[in-house]
Structures are given as structure tokens and as C-alpha cells.
TrEMBL record:
Keyword terms of this UniProt record: Hydrolase, Lyase, Purine metabolism
GO molecular function: ureidoglycolate hydrolase activity; ureidoglycolate lyase activity
GO biological process: allantoin catabolic process; purine nucleobase metabolic process
Protein name according to UniProt: Ureidoglycolate lyase
EC class of the enzyme, as a word: hydrolase
Summary of subunit composition and partner proteins: Homodimer.
Organism the protein comes from: Candidimonas nitroreducens
InterPro entries linked to this entry: RmlC_Cupin_sf, UAH_cupin, Ureidogly_lyase, Ureidoglycolate_lyase_dom_sf
Region forming the signal peptide: none
Length: 165
């Protein structure tokens, strides 16, 4: 069992795995006669393979207990996958770099602040959605279409939170 500690999520530490989706990112500009700010092009949605398309879903998820124990990480080789909270819920982000095998030393864990979403790049290893503290409602943008799009890699992990998280 590999014990890892989740650190606060930032754009910089997550950059090799994908994008952080929040209003602090990217370029923003006024639209609609100044009534709104567009926080533009925050993440790249990847949809690969036969009949690929982007799809929007909503996950309503029960929370996980801490320390969070899991037996595998998964990846989606045919597309990215984004999770954006609709209700301020926080969640754990456990990732490992693209590759056929996972080097346990490369696994990283982060915790979001309730205003952050993430977009996992295609083939980035990650834990399935793990909401903290209370039930969470998240918008999910990922790839629809033909073909198998979920590989599983056995790995026993126990994830705790860094002090103050
Ligand atoms: N199974 C499913 O749709 N979701 C997972 O891919 C996940 O990362 O939570
Ligand atoms: Ni996934």
C-alpha cells in the first residue's frame, strides 16, 4: 500500500496532467455589453477515435472517507475528462503521468478548493471522482463515441490530506 499526501491544487503543479478550470486561469474579457466576463478557453477537450464527440454529464457523488484507499488508477486513452463542481464541493485529484506502467514514485495527489475543476488530459492515470466531506454535484465533460475508453491499472494507494487542507 502506497501512502501519499494530497497537497493544494495549483495550475503549476497540475500542468503535466492537464488543466485547472477556474476563473483565475487564462484570458478573460468582457462580453454581453459588459454584463459578463468570459474566462476563455480554459481547457482543451480531446475526443479521439471513431465517431468521437464531446459529451456533458452531471455526476452526483457521495463523499469518500479519509484516508482514501483505492486499488487502482484508470485512464481514458480516447479523450480528456473534466470535472467542474457546480456546488462548491471539494474533491481529491490523484494522478500519474501518461505511460503503459505506473511508477509508484510518480503518483501525485492534490485537493481542490471548491472553486477549481480539473481537466485530465487523454491517457493521464487518475483516481475516479473522489468528493470530500459531503455529496457533490459536478459537471463532467468527456469523450463519447465508439470503442473502449477506460483502462485500469492495479495500484494500492492510501491518500491523506496535508495539514491545513
Ligand atoms: N466512470 C466514469 O464515468 N467516471 C470515471 O472515469 C471517473 O474518472 O470518475
Ligand atoms: Ni475517469
Amino acid at each position: 500500500m502506497l501512502d501519499i499526501t494530497a497537497q493544494p491544487l495549483t495550475r503549476e503543479v497540475f500542468s503535466e496532467f492537464g488543466d485547472v478550470v477556474d476563473t483565475l486561469a487564462g484570458t478573460s474579457f468582457a462580453i454581453n455589453a459588459g454584463r459578463a466576463m468570459r474566462h476563455h478557453d480554459l481547457a482543451r477537450v480531446e475526443t479521439l477515435g471513431e465517431g468521437a464527440r464531446a459529451q456533458l454529464s452531471i455526476f452526483v457523488s457521495k463523499p469518500v472517507e479519509l484516508p482514501f484507499e483505492l486499488e487502482f488508477l484508470e485512464r481514458h486513452p480516447l479523450g480528456s475528462q473534466a470535472f467542474v463542481p457546480m456546488d462548491g464541493s471539494r474533491f481529491l485529484v490523484v494522478v500519474a503521468p501518461v505511460g503503459e506502467a505506473i511508477d509508484p514514485g510518480s503518483v501525485r495527489a492534490f485537493v481542490t478548493n471548491g472553486r477549481q475543476g480539473v481537466n485530465y488530459r487523454a491517457s493521464v492515470w487518475h483516481a475516479p471522482l473522489a468528493v470530500l466531506e459531503r455529496s457533490g454535484e459536478l459537471l463532467v465533460v468527456d469523450r463519447g463515441g465508439e470503442g473502449a475508453n477506460c483502462d485500469v491499472h492495479p495500484l494500492r494507494l492510501r491518500v491523506g490530506l496535508a495539514a491545513g487542507c
